[in-house]
TrEMBL record:
The lineage of its organism: Bacteria, Pseudomonadati, Pseudomonadota, Gammaproteobacteria, Chromatiales. One of its GO terms (molecular function) is symporter activity. PANTHER family: TRANSPORTER (PTHR42948). The chain crosses the membrane at residues 12-32, 44-68, 95-119, 152-171, 178-199, 219-247, 259-281, 293-326, 347-368, 388-407, 428-449. This is Transporter. NCBIfam families: Na_transp (NF037979).
């Protein structure tokens, strides 16, 4: 059975879907998370594994997630149980939707805290605080922010409210314009930053760090983190892309739209790396210093470049927009569920979800100051939230999505929904979803826990 529209509405065109999905994919994951974990895991080899995961696991699973969403046309929880029923399978597939909702709460909780850092940096940039900063000054400025729980909490609250407001209004209104104009602007500014890094930074050193693989530095855990980053950056494995797919009209090509989103997302991440690492090396900073990496390197660059006051302010504004269009997609699956099953209005549902995620976010706020000493396996609250979701829950969700689309649904249903006419293309995708992606995820898990 094919449902034509979701009760929550539909994108006004295919282009809007591409923009919204790109808005979801491109965010802090590309500009903040990608450079810092590349730095922590030694560069080149890690980037290569990451790109492999994007292409062989991320792209086929994105297509699978969109196709499930469009066929189910509901929140991921209801989509999974409806599709399972239609295919004559166990209703427990609905649990996959629940897994996504839990992951979504955890991701949203810390995503909002980090987006709060970016909010605070808009004002720092605009006030001229970056001017003349060297590595030590920029580091002290970052420390000053994260050591102050009150300020972190205030920014976290503001960002969570911003997300809640958009989701309460319905994902479509407002969002369309934002992505249409501001995402290209972000891309342009990133290109400009790479230009600056070429002119003033140690560009070749940064370039080699990112692309010259040294496999000796690649541990089993690094491979897991690279795969986790592929899931995180493409918004896969928790139903965000699934629910966006549920608002897509039945004729749009899932393959083409997915390829566009993946291409744009990868381009932004690579550009961010090329903008950051040359500055890292030119300023004598440590690439593996962790989550503060861009908040320390970018102010140095903006503080020295001509027009840096303007560019710096605009950059952090655009980074917030990118984070905003991502955080709304993290919130959407849980909100759609509350509307469908608990009879809540979108406004109430958004308030409930935002409230719970906000509370959980306090753990991340404190993990950078009062609770920095409380660790589990040497990880703070923030580290645990991030590791558990990106490296375990998202790949697990992706694995189950691949199994469902590749093995449990009939080939006929999958083919009908995907609508790929070229047999070779369909076969390739089907092979990736049935074998390469799930086996790849399994091998990475086994390698990370040291079994292979
Ligand atoms: N992909 C976004 C980023 O890179 C974050 C994001 C949005 C996300 N939706 C998601 C991550 C769903 C995991 C799951 O910033």
């Amino acid at each position: 059975m094919r449902r034509d529209v979701s009760i929550h509405g539909q994108w006004s065109s295919k282009l809007v879907f591409v923009l919204a999905a790109t808005g979801s994919a491109v965010g802090l994951g590309n500009i903040w998370r990608f450079p810092y974990i590349v730095g922590e895991h030694g560069g080149g080899a890690f980037v290569l594994v990451y790109l492999g995961c994007i292409l062989l696991i991320g792209l086929p699973i994105m297509m699978a997630e969109i196709l499930l969403g469009r066929r189910g046309r509901q929140s991921p929880i209801n989509t999974m149980s409806t599709l399972a029923r239609e295919e004559g399978l166990s209703r427990s597939w609905g649990l996959l939707g629940w897994l996504g909702v839990v992951a979504g709460f955890i991701i949203l909780s810390y995503y909002s805290v980090i987006a709060g850092w970016a909010l605070s940096y808009v004002f720092r940039a605009g006030a001229g605080s970056f001017i003349g900063q060297d590595a030590g000054g920029a580091q002290a400025m970052f420390e000053g922010l994260v050591s102050d729980p009150e300020r972190l909490l205030a920014w976290h609250t503001i960002f969570m409210v911003m997300t809640m407001l958009v989701v309460a209004r319905g994902v479509r209104s407002g969002l369309e314009q934002a992505v249409r104009i501001l995402m290209p602007a972000l891309l342009l500014l990133l290109v400009l930053m790479v230009g600056y890094a070429m002119a003033e930074g140690h560009f070749m050193e940064g370039f080699r760090f990112m692309f010259q693989p040294d496999f000796g530095r690649l541990t089993g855990n690094s491979v897991l983190v690279a795969m986790g980053q592929a899931f995180f950056t493409l918004s896969l494995g928790m139903g965000a892309i699934m629910i966006y797919g549920s608002y897509l009209n039945s004729r749009a090509s899932i393959a083409k739209t997915s390829a566009t989103v993946v291409g744009a997302d990868t381009a932004v991440a690579i550009l961010a790396g090329l903008a950051i690492f040359p500055i890292v090396f030119a300023s004598g900073l440590e690439p593996g210093q962790g989550p503060g990496l861009i908040f320390i390197t970018l102010p140095i660059a903006f503080g020295q470049m001509p027009g840096g006051l303007l560019f710096g302010t605009v950059f952090f504004v655009l980074l917030i927009v990118a984070a905003w269009t991502s955080s709304i997609s993290i919130m959407e699956p849980a909100v759609a569920y509350l509307v469908e099953n608990r009879g809540l209005h979108r406004i109430g549902a958004a308030a409930v979800v935002a409230g719970v995620a906000w509370l959980l976010g306090i753990g991340t706020v404190l993990s950078f100051n009062h609770w920095s000493g409380y660790t589990l396996f040497d990880m703070t609250f923030f580290d645990v939230a991030d590791y558990l979701t990106s490296n375990i829950l998202l790949p697990l969700g992706g694995f189950l999505i691949a199994i469902f689309a590749g093995w449990r649904m009939t080939e006929r249903s999958v083919m009908e929904e995907l609508g790929i006419r070229q047999p070779l293309l369909f076969r390739t995708w089907y092979y990736l979803v049935r074998f390469v992606a799930p086996i790849g995820i399994l091998l990475v898990f086994l390698r990370a826990i040291g079994l292979i």
